[in-house]
Amino acid sequence: MDAAQQEATARARELQRNWYGEPLGALFRRLIDDLGLNQARLAGVLGLSAPMLSQLMSGQRAKIGNPAVVQRVQLLQDLAGQVADGSVSAAEATERMDEIKKSQGGSVLNNTTQSTTSSGAPTVKRVVREIQSLLRSVAAAGDIIEAADTLAPTHPELAEFLRVYGAGRTSDAVTHYQTHQN
Q: Sorting pLDDT into bands at 50, 70 and 90, what band is 122?
């Protein structure tokens, strides 16, 4: 990739951060992980071609042009949160994804809707998911585990933090967060 392509990709990711709250690559990878999908299945549920999904994830394209796809992304984010907190089973999630795939409405993707409580404070789960997203945007899970193993002998608490937030399940991270907030 030459300098002009790198600059265009960086610009596209910045636009995605402004429009969707984060780069779509990070958002889609989280949906894939949380819902147990692959890229082809995610593309199918969203109503995108696999190449289009890939271009959005890599920053070759900045914007989702179809409002119905934007709404499906929001619905999948909500579903992923419910799967992660255990309120929706894997079987129910599969059924819901089939319903989401058929939905036709349009809306603006709004990360703030589900991210705060009625008092305006971020939910514990949202804080945890932001920490996970940040760690996972910096390094792959295997690298995070390797770093945790390196730290474990001298800094076991930091090693645990890296393992739980960098490579663990959201539900475990929520428990860890709640335990260490009190």
A: low
Mark whether 86 and 131 lie in a shared domain.
no
Answer yes or no: do 81 and 170 share one domain.
Answer: no
CA dist 11 and 7 (Å) reads 6
Lowest mean pLDDT among 38-42, 60-64, 109-113, 172-176: 109-113
How sure is the predictor about 160, in pLDDT bands with cuts at 50, 70 and 90? very high
Residue 26: inside a domain, yes or no?
A: yes
Structural domain range at position 20: 1-104
In a domain, 113, yes or no: no
Q: How many domains does the chain have?
A: 2
Whether residues 4 and 74 fall in one domain: yes
